[in-house]
């Protein structure tokens, strides 16, 4: 497909985007990042730590941008532990924040994917190994799992477990519903960004479903940013519905707006966070030294 692609057509499609479309795309991306960063506000409510929202948003923004571009282990896990621990949180608390964030993301995913797949809103090519009926059954199973989680949060009598020395507590139904809402909103916004970059004949529920399929495929293949995976699935499913040049241009625009631009900003924010942490450690060391001198005197 790529070998036969008319790159002049792609170039023309990219040049055809109006400033309004691009600014709208940036706005959608910013809103999506804001929603994702709010996952950790749920984590604050869940764990009861006292970090201010501004610190949480800046930290989570950096982690999300790094997560998308460099992989979940570096951005989603290792960097989160590093930055939160520098702000004084214990490992157990960080683990619980991370667990709430992950569940929020995937509960929202299962609700949306379950709805799109079970309602057969995606048109699959005849040569796909997974047929429409199989995809529909997968969608129903996802809805069942999501519903089971919400019901467990409401009715479960045993609400805490200890895993590798870390206590995991089942959240309240209210918190679980907030998880489902934020998770679904974030995935919907990501699909909306691709949708506005495509021609008018694009069908939003189909775009959402294809994004959800490509995202899980990217996780399974362990390729950072799902590079090439997202593009292959979108092209494979939409090449007969949308002109290839417009489709590739939309995916390039999506990569630039949702991945590269936030990563550039996140690098700057990360340097600021590291500088602040270094200053705080230096100040803490000076205070400790003065206390030691007072005690010896």
Automatic annotation (TrEMBL):
Superkingdom of source: Bacteria
Name of this protein: UPF0104 family protein
Compartment list: Cell membrane
Membrane-topology descriptor: Multi-pass membrane protein
Transmembrane segments: 20-36, 56-79, 100-122, 128-152, 173-196, 202-220, 248-273
Keywords, sorted A to Z: Cell membrane, Membrane, Transmembrane, Transmembrane helix
Broad class of where this protein is predominantly found: membrane
PANTHER family in UniProt: UPF0104 MEMBRANE PROTEIN MJ1595
GO terms under cellular component: plasma membrane
Cited InterPro entries: L-PG_synthase/AglD
